[in-house]
Amino acid sequence: METSRLLLRPPLTDDADAVAAICNSEYVLRCNAAPVLTREQVAADLEKGAAEQSILLLVEKESGQVIGAVFIGPDTLRYQVDSLCLSYYLAQAHAGKGYMTEALEAVLAYLFRERKPDVISARAFSVNAASIGLLEKLGFVREGCLRRGVRGYGDVLHDDVLFSILKEDFFAAHPA
Question: Closest Cα to residue 107, out of 138, 67, 133?
Answer without folding.
Answer: 138
